[in-house]
Amino acid sequence: MRHQPFDPFESSEAYENVCGDDMRRVDDTNCGSELSERERMNNARGGCEIIAYRLTQRGHYMPLYHSHNYYEFIFVLSSGRIVFSNTGGSIESDGKCVCFHNSHVLHRNNVPGDVYYDRVVLYCGESALSMIGGGMGSLGKFTEEGSVVIQFDEHILRRMEYYLGELMLEGISPDRKCLITALILTELKEHSDPRNTRTLSPIRTYIKDVAEYIGTHYKEDITTPELAQRFFVSVNKLNRDFKRYTGSTIKQYLIALRMKYAQAMLAGGEGVKKTAEECGFESLSYFIQAFRQYTGQTPSAFSKKALGQFDYYT
Asked: Which of 147, 150, 55, 145 minimizes the C-alpha distance to 93?
């Protein structure tokens, strides 16, 4: 595991050279993010924001930075080259590790197209951690870090895999989820030391706050001039800085976020009209047009395919 020299402002084309020319483009918005959002929303209703699911594929390409309002742990169970990045740089690993991304940190992860990528993604919300007593739910030394990568030995990897398997059992209760998550966090904090752990601090920028604001107000009619006024910058500066740090325009970022939530709702059985309203689309016809342009299919067709048997890689 090693740090990579990294320019956070480089284009996606330049970044492909970091992971190799043969990288298969797999957009993260179509690789399980929908599942996590759907499950996150469903679990939130029960007061336990802990979600774990397993994903496997060849290669993984995330062209844009994104952030969450919850904590993300990526347990990589396979071997092979993977690059974890935030706006402060990147860390390269050969697999069999865990990557932690703090809440509201802009990040992305990339894997060459010839590498088999097997991982369990664990999401934890603030409310879930607060339910775990005795300090076991505390992130400890990870709290102040943007991203952390811990290399596993085989013994720890097998134990983590067992805990994660229990966490993914169907019908698991919120209390048991909290207990197992507490065990996982305790193991990570105890296992982490300077020999096997690398940390990465993101560049401090107001764009992090802009992205966080968009993430919590995506249903609203957000305009660039209003954002610029809210964050005390000119429209030109905001557009330039946002593109520089995230790799996308504000409009692209907002549409991608709305589409992610829309796919989550449709996969969860919500109707097309209700989904359009909940995701900030005032016009049903515009939502259908935008959804088709973004996914290549209508919301109704997507819903029929996704409901109960959704395959994220077809």
From this structure: 150
Compute the chain's Rg from CA coordinates: 19
Distance CA 68, CA 106 (A): 8
CA distances (Å), 225 to each of 236, 242, 245, in order? 9, 13, 19
Return the closest-CA partner of residue 60 out of 39, 79, 83, 77.
83
Q: Could you tell me if 120 and 99 are in contact, meaning their C-beta atoms sit under 8 angstroms apart?
A: no
Tracing tokens 């995330």 back to the chain, one arrives at 62
pLDDT in tens, 79-114: 999 999 988 889 999 999 999 998 888 888 999 999
User: What's the DSSP call for residue 66?
Assistant: B
The pair phi, psi for residue 208, each rounded to 5°, is -55, -45
Number of residues in the chain: 314
Residue range 255-264, pLDDT digits in tens: 888 888 888 7
